[in-house]
Amino acid sequence: MIKEILKKYWGYGSFRPMQEDIINSALAGKDTLALMPTGGGKSICFQVPAMARDGICLVVSPLIALMKDQVQNLNNKGIKALAVYSGMTYSQIDATLDNAIYGDYKFLYVSPERLHTHMFRERVRKMDISFLVVDEAHCISQWGYDFRPAYLEIKEIQELIGDVPVIALTATATKSVAEDIMEKLSFRERNVISSGFERENLSYVVRNVEDKFGNILKVCNGVPGTGIVYVRERKRCEEISSFLRQNGITSDFYHAGLSKELRSAKQDAWINDDIRVIVATNAFGMGIDKPDVRFVVHYDLPDSLEAYFQEAGRAGRDGKRSYATMLWNSSDISRLRQIHTVSFPDIQYMKDVYQKVFIYLNIPYEEGKDCVSKFNLVEFSKRFSLNSVSAYYAIKYLEQEGYWELTDELDNPSRIMFVVGRDELYKVQIDNPELDKFIKSVLRIYTALFSKLTPIDEEYIARVTMDSLMGVKEKLKQLSRLKIIKYIPQVRTPLIIMNTERLVESNLYISQKRYEERKGMFQKRIESIISFVKNDEECRSRQLIEYFGQEATKDCGVCDVCIKQRNNSNSGTRKKEIEKHIFSILEERGNTTIKEVETAAGDEYKLYLQVLREMIDNSAVAIEGDKIKRR
């Protein structure tokens, strides 16, 4: 049956390794933790069993882009799917949850932040849920590299929906994190199915270099096809992208500081191969189905091997030879250890920041629970003369303690409210016939516009009124100028959501023991990435596989360490092969440049240059200007 479903909706005749085992485990009613590398086909593992059962599959997923992409893909296959996430209006969420109950839908995707809302909890009781799916399941473990407190709400949802099989999926979990996931999700019995962490087509390369820009260019010139360059800072994204364009590489940059429309346009251009290289912060890539990425470059060291493995794994998802290159030097290691220091401010400092946040938001003691406010970190830090980096990490740690949630920059919806009475509005409609139809349409779409500021969706209004988005916005501005409505256009800003009322100083508790444990775990992850880049004696793939608790049966043979060892053991033979290769390039082109030889050499460029120097010393070739010629 499951193969027929796979063929009918996905067009595949067979499953990838371990997919069928995971699916059969779930259909047998077992709680299942699936460990699969990026690009291993995780979504199939819950989408197929959900199609084989009656009811709706509830999927908890951390990224809006990921949810939207999967919902769109399912709908394109004729499978009815929905999503609920931050930024939707009350009426949109209300209609979506009603459809999940009564509309014969097969999938409901939900962001973890929506789980605690009263509306969701009331409606989820009425749903006929087939499976509870937890994507990026490592987020539920406080020992994981990307802990999100909102994931802890899943346990309460389990109590509301009853005895429903759980399918938890992640690409990155050590043994201890896997055990924690199963405990947090109340697995009835331990059940881990892993497809392994080997990526035979992916060549890991680590380079200790000072000229990172030049090395990125070498990768771009040496490896055909599309790529991703990951950096830590937004400003650096723009600098590297500009450098690549100046050197003939079609490139663009991507980070969370850009508008939703601009991010979407850049992402689409890269997916459609209109640009070769996207230079991005680590927010980029999750949920993007682009199998032909040939290289991923890390300009900065990631702060964990889990993050590195996931980001590097976005290369070569089509199974063809691809490269994951990490650039580092001693400054990177110092910077990484500094991040560890600032990530864990003193507990008393965090308690002080806690009170200042409530003062900044003008919230008195014993009030503020469920309050949602815009939060400008720079403005907040200036007001209280705080270092913005230290304040940020204090706020994020308090988030892990469950006191509040600080979102990334969100596209907060526009809001409107009529500030005139109905009688006065009627006169306005008579005096402005060109606005009359528009006002009537808006009043039909949204209720309570006379009593409170109401979130609106200008794109939806444009579709209903058969107008352009620009036209709708202009009409709203015109009504605002006429003092008929209060119009607050969409803004991009982080939000802070209070989970508890403001506590007095003596009631604010931060566990010293948990603080020390988290700090120690974070340091352990940082030291693991430092050890990885410094260890140039052991196969890179073997190091990664063993870090995740699996036994590596063989060296990969294609990473920088394996190539170096092979060259050392066969240096004489390899040098002769390289000499022949250089001669063949000269015969093919007549003459060539040192840069062209470097490009042809790929990761062996140092050995190629050594052989070239020996060929010059032996008078086999000569350098004339910037050209290499055979004697």
Structural commentary:
This protein folds into 5 domains: 2-194, P-loop containing nucleotide triphosphate hydrolases (Rossmann fold), CATH 3.40.50; 202-328, P-loop containing nucleotide triphosphate hydrolases (Rossmann fold); 337-410 and 494-522, Orthogonal Bundle (Arc Repressor Mutant, subunit A), CATH 1.10.10.10; 414-489; 570-630, Arc Repressor Mutant, subunit A (Orthogonal Bundle). It is 47% helix and 16% strand. It is built from 26 helices and 24 strands. The strands form 6 sheets. The chain has a 7-stranded parallel beta sheet, with helices on both faces. Helix 7 (154-161) links the parallel strand 5 and strand 6 (166-170).
CATH topology of the largest domain: Rossmann fold
Count helical runs: 26
Query: Roughly how many Å is the radius of gyration?
Result: 28 Å
The shape, in one word, is globular
As laid out across the biggest beta sheet, the strand order is 3-4-2-5-6-1-7
Mean of residue pLDDT values: 89
Q: Give the tally of β-strands.
A: 24
How many domains make up the 3D coordinates?
5
What characterizes the major β-sheet?
7 strands, parallel
Helix content: 40-55%
Features:
631 residues, alpha/beta, 5 domains, Rossmann fold, six-stranded parallel sheet, Arc Repressor Mutant, subunit A
Q: Secondary-structure map with pairings?
A:
Blueprint lengths: L1 H9 L8 H9 L4 E4 L6 H10 L4 E5 L3 H13 L4 E4 L5 H13 L4 E4 L7 H7 L4 E6 L19 H8 L4 E5 L4 H10 L7 E3 L7 E7 L3 H11 L3 E5 L3 H13 L4 E4 L5 H12 L5 E4 L12 E6 L6 H8 L9 E7 L1 H14 L3 H14 L11 E3 L2 H7 L4 H13 L3 E3 L3 E3 L1 E5 L3 H10 L1 H13 L8 E3 L1 H8 L3 H13 L3 E4 L2 E3 L1 E4 L13 H23 L5 H8 L12 H10 L1 H19 L2 E2 H8 L3 H13 L3 E4 L2 E4 L1
Parallel strand pairs: 1-6, 1-7, 2-4, 2-5, 3-4, 5-6, 8-13, 9-11, 9-12, 10-11, 12-13
Antiparallel strand pairs: 14-21, 15-21, 16-20, 17-18, 17-19, 22-24, 23-24
Helix pairs in contact: 2-3, 5-6, 9-25, 13-21, 14-16, 17-18, 19-20, 23-24, 24-26, 25-26
